[in-house]
Amino acid sequence: MTRHHQPRKGSVAFSPRKRASRQSPRIKSWPPLEETGLLGFAGYKVGMTHVTVTDNRKNSPTEGMEISTPVTILEVPPVIVMGIRAYKKTIHGLKTMMDVMAGELSEELWRKIPLPEKYDTDSNLNKLKENIEDIDDIRVLIHTNPKVTSVPKKKPEIIECGIGGSSVEEKLEYASGILGTEINAADVFSDGEHVDSIAITKGKGFQGPVKRWGIRIQYGKAARSSKGRHVGSLGPWSPERTMWTVPQAGQMGYHKRTEYNKQILKIGDASEADTVNPHGGFVKYGLVKNNFVIVKGSLPGPSKRLVILRKAMRPHRKQNDAPSISFISTASKQGV
């Protein structure tokens, strides 16, 4: 009887699969857009439902027909621009040069960032403009507002967000104009636009190699001494070490992941929240009370997890026309 052979299971592309350092993801790269404006926005994952839309994809077999598609709801209350961060280029990459904070911050932020009582925003901003020749990039610091949502927390998350623009002067002028103001999701994105979603995935704890990597369970005599839920061999005699490519047990989930080119079907206002709220609210979340975003497909992370939407880093030639939504399911998700 011939033995069964098959390729290895599980991609090693995401190794090492260690826990994320924090629950709010850090974005290291932003698309180089010349259009002035914020390049990202933050929201909280509410849950999933399904909608009926008219398929407007060209050359699609169902073009012009009504189709049902799964969607994810994000609650996106306005974010506040709390600071400006300037970067200078060094031999070790970009390094923070100076931060300019807004004059008035919320009470929750004072616990995280204790500013001096006589903090002069204008003088620091003028100092930044005087040294604009040394600045290589300008970004802004924004913070979320979770206390107005159904997420049981008060402390906001602080996120660094990139700015689009053709020059540093243009970016600094735009950042100075929005410092201390509220920004809505509709000011950053539009219906039908393709964006990248960045979040920390669901944590599944310490798991064995069968569940973590998808290896097959051993058969016959090899599985009698144990249940066979382990690799057949940890490696050869030479080299005398265990290779990092060998599937082993360890942390599964709670990793930072990026999904590219997710389409925004609709950006809704707080007055339209009843059109997406199911009977009894979303499971493990509650009711949507603020602005919301309907994204086609699934997004990483569980309910109440922070999800950052970013302008498309790898834009494709697909159309950005929003399909017309004729039906949004508000059936109760309890027990599903």
Mind explaining what this structure looks like?
The chain is mainly β and 336 residues long. Helix content is 10%, strand content 32%. The chain is built from 4 helices and 15 strands. Strands 1, 4, 5, 6, 7 and 8 form a 6-stranded antiparallel β-sheet that branches. The longest helix is centred in the middle third of the chain and has 11 residues, at 168-178.
Number of helices: 4
Compute the gyration radius: what is it? 24 Å
Query: What can be said about the biggest beta sheet?
Result: 6 strands, antiparallel
Total beta-strand segments: 15
Helix content: under 10%
Mean of residue pLDDT values: 90
- Terminal Cα span: 45 Å
The H/E string reads EEEEEHHEEHEEEHEEEEE
Strand content: 25-35%
Low-confidence stretches: none
Look at the helices and sheets and give the structural class. Answer: mainly beta
Outline: globular
Short key terms for the protein model shown above:
336 residues, mainly beta, six-stranded antiparallel sheet, six-stranded antiparallel beta barrel, globular
Question: Briefly, what is this?
Answer:
With about 325 residues, this protein is mainly β.
Write the layout of secondary structure elements.
Layout (H helix, E strand, L loop, with lengths): L36 E2 L1 E15 L11 E10 L3 E12 L2 E9 L5 H6 L8 H10 L6 E7 L14 E7 L3 H11 L3 E2 L10 E7 L2 E5 L1 H5 L36 E4 L2 E13 L23 E5 L9 E6 L13 E4 L8
Antiparallel strand pairs: 1-7, 2-3, 2-14, 2-15, 3-13, 4-5, 4-6, 4-8, 6-7, 9-12, 9-14, 10-11, 12-13
